[in-house]
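Review form for a predicted model. The reviewer records the input and the model, then writes brief findings.
Reviewer: anonymous (R2)
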Amino acid sequence: MVEYAAIALVLVAALFTPADIFHGQTGAAFMADMIKAFFRNLTHYISLP
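Model under review:
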């Protein structure tokens, strides 16, 4: 149960972090860009022979 609370706390902190830390992006936009980059790289590696 403590693990879920810790993960939720980290997620909330990342989403509501000021834009100054992430080079002018909000925490939510920065996380969305990181997830997009992860899946873009993942699909690239999967498509390799």
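Findings: The chain has a mean pLDDT of 83.
Further findings: Helices lie at 2-15, 27-47.
Recommendation: see findings above.
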